[in-house]
């Protein structure tokens, strides 16, 4: 059973792959993305690189579980013959926070809708097979406030749970940020609740 607090993604873009079908050439790429705003600059760079290509089709997915966003774009190919087959491969590899682009150079022979679907699917699959897929955990960020005198207690709890300090501010009092795996968050919260002198909130 897959934990609901883990997801698969990639950290690095993949090497270019090439798929050929009846003189048409399909180049496939996979990029890690964190926001939708990152899609356009990457796409523009690929268009610049392949400025004489005919189509630059893509699909992306962001988020996990019930917060998934995705888009599939056929870029002038027949409806659902390019973007959706690419997106289908993102789903079958069960990965998220990725952008898959397939660039097509037309070779003079029409492939028909079935041929296109299969070519875009195969190219996306080949590109994703190149990817170094990593598993990450969904985390919850906590902000903890305390007086200096209670700092040691907070540090001890962080150490017990082996949690990182993401940031700390030492002014009139101490403010720390840490993050913990979603499935362990409740236990950590109970732990914090036992310290009356500190306040905390989830971000």
UniProtKB/TrEMBL annotation:
Residues 144-195 form the UPF0029 domain. Residues 22-128 form the Impact N-terminal domain. InterPro entries: EFG_III/V, Impact, Impact_N, Impact_N_sf, Impact_YigZ-like, Ribosomal_Su5_D2-typ_SF, UPF0029_Impact_C. Transmembrane segments: none annotated. It comes from the Bacteria. Gene3D superfamilies: 3.30.70.240, Impact, N-terminal domain (3.30.230.30). GO terms for biological process: regulation of translational initiation. GO terms for cellular component: cytoplasm. PANTHER family: IMPACT FAMILY MEMBER YIGZ, IMPACT-RELATED. Belongs to the IMPACT family. This is Impact N-terminal domain-containing protein.
């Amino acid at each position: 059973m897959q934990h609901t607090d883990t997801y698969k993604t990639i950290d690095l873009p993949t090497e270019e792959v090439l798929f050929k079908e009846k003189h048409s050439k399909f180049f496939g790429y996979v990029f890690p993305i964190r926001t939708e705003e990152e899609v356009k600059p990457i796409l523009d760079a690929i268009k610049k690189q392949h400025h004489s290509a005919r189509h630059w089709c893509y699909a992306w997915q962001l988020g996990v579980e019930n917060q998934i966003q995705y888009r599939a774009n056929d870029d002038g190919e027949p409806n659902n013959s390019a973007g959706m087959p690419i997106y289908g491969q993102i789903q079958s590899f069960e990965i998220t926070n990725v952008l898959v682009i397939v660039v097509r150079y037309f070779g003079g022979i029409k492939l028909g809708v079935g041929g296109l679907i299969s070519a875009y699917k195969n190219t996306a699959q080949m590109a994703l097979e190149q990817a170094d897929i990593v598993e990450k955990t969904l985390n919850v960020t906590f902000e903890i406030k305390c007086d200096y005198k209670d700092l040691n207690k907070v540090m001890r709890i962080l150490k017990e749970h082996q949690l990182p300090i993401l940031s700390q501010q030492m002014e009139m009092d101490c403010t720390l940020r840490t993050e913990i795996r979603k499935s362990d968050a409740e236990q950590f919260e109970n732990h914090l609740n036992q310290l009356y002198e500190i306040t905390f909130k989830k971000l």
